[in-house]
Design a protein that fits this description.
- By secondary structure, this protein is an alpha/beta fold.
- It starts with a strand and ends with a helix.
- The strands form two sheets. A seven-stranded mixed sheet has the order 1-9-8-7-2-5-6, with helices on both faces. A two-stranded antiparallel ribbon has the order 3-4.
- Strand 5, helix 6 and strand 6 form a beta-alpha-beta unit.
- The chain is elongated and about 65 Å long.
- The protein has ten helices and nine strands.
- This is Haloacid dehalogenase-like hydrolase.
- It comes from Streptomyces chrestomyceticus.
């Protein structure tokens, strides 16, 4: 599956502007489900409160606090979220895998002289641990941003493309006036991503380098005098 809409003029930078592509993390660049499941199981053991880890990993994308609220009273959400983040490195990093095509997608941006940044709702230090462990060489990592708030980092870094698996990622790209490239590898299906307004829809990141080749060529063509 690969569907495309025409590249909107506002997202096409001039030739003098460096290409910057943003990527989401969970279920876009990494399959963190095994690691996150283990982290929730550790949280349950530590707190004595049941958390359905199998259900939790079907809802990846939004901020951690949204999931914690399902299992803990509001007055404990901040405390338990901090505990989860403390437990995370010991339980979630080694069990997490790179998504198919993740390293190649990041490398494709850099091969075109661009910068590949990661903009994620995940706690930034833990996001950096994942990327280092999996040898995914992002040029910058910005954490604790979700949906429309991701536009803050995308704008600050001059990103013209944002790649993600969730409708929240589509909204983040739209808010930043960036091209939304959606991959159907997370909790949101292709139809849902398309309905949310994704400009480009790919099965997974293995199709991204070929798409980027065309995008860069079109960007250069539009910038030509």
């Amino acid at each position: 599956m690969a569907s495309h809409t025409p590249v909107p003029d506002p997202t096409v930078a001039t030739a003098s502007q460096q290409l910057t592509v943003g990527f989401d993390l969970d279920m876009t660049l990494i399959d963190s489900r095994p690691g996150i499941k283990a982290a929730y199981q550790a949280l349950s053991a530590e707190t004595g409160t049941y958390v359905d880890a199998d259900a939790a990993i079907t809802r990846l994308g939004p901020p951690l606090e949204q999931e914690i609220r399902r299992w803990f009273p509001e007055e404990r959400v901040a405390e338990v979220s901090d505990l989860y983040r403390e437990l995370y490195p010991a339980h979630a990093i080694t069990g997490t895998l790179a998504m198919p095509g993740a390293r190649e997608a990041v490398a494709a941006v850099q091969r075109h002289g661009g910068r590949a940044i990661v903009v994620t709702a995940k706690y930034e230090p833990n996001a950096k641990l994942h990327l280092a462990h999996l040898d995914i060489g992002a040029d910058a990592v910005i954490g604790s941003l979700w949906a429309e708030a991701k536009a803050e980092a995308l704008r600050a870094h001059g990103a013209s493309v944002y790649v993600g698996d969730h409708t929240g990622d589509v909204r983040g790209a739209q808010t930043a006036d960036a091209l939304s490239v959606a991959v159907a590898t997370g909790p949101c299906g292709a139809d849902e991503l398309r309905a949310a307004g994704a400009n480009v829809l790919l099965d997974d990141l293995t199709g991204f380098p070929a798409w980027l080749e065309g995008y860069v060529a079109e960007r250069a063509r539009r910038a030509a005098p």
